[in-house]
Write a structure and sequence with these properties.
The protein is an all-alpha fold and 256 residues long. It is 85% helix and 0% strand. The chain has a single domain, classed as MetI-like fold, CATH 1.10.3720.10. The chain is globular and about 75 Å long. Residues 60-244 form the ABC transmembrane type-1 domain.
Amino acid sequence: MGRMKDKLLNYLPAALLFAAVIAAWQAAVTFGGLRPYLLPSPASVLDAMFDPTIRWWGHIWATGVAIIGAFLLAAVSGVFLGCLVAWSPVINRALMPFLVFLNTLPKVAIAPLFLIWVGYGIFPNILMGALIGFFPVVINTAVGLSQIDHDMIDLGWVFSAPKWKVFLKIRIPNAYPYILSALKVTATSAVVGAIVGEFVASQNGLGYVIVTSQSSMNTALAFAALIYISLIGLVLFAAVGLLSRILAPWAEGNEA
């Protein structure tokens, strides 16, 4: 019972902040005389979230698949490239400048090219989200594999462990906190990338809802879509946090 109370107390500041924001939002609408197309009331946004004429579940499903796909692609490719960079100095010198160049490209400008290369659908949105989110995973993975106590490496050599085994048994577990920390950043980046892809060209998804709501000046609908997007991002972020507590509980304790 006491543990449950402590958890509730941990979330209390965030809950109070959300309540204060909603209260200030309602006050601004009520006393500020703002028109609904400029700032809808929280009640009208709530009505829009449950509007039966909007195919919400289809849009949520499309955006959720794009975000999760982008996150998984960014995580797998980022960890793989980070391992390559840490494995060989030659690969590091060859690969890192290209990855930095790729990361500096304006992602919004690349989105139309994805449509030309792979066509319409969810896959271009997945690629866009992965492109935005993979770089932190590469860097953190490489750092985590490199920043390790040399006594641990020497211990592996003492037992005549081959390089691949030292890498697998010592370096990779050491990199868990670094990788998981990057995945938390990627969880939010994947959301941004997937929505950018839906903005450019999509016939489905929450980004598509926001774009179409502009033509009718239905700001409440756009706010409702934004809330659903945030909820998907929060669920993904919480899933990474849970994975972090399972794989690297010592790191979670240090962060707390």
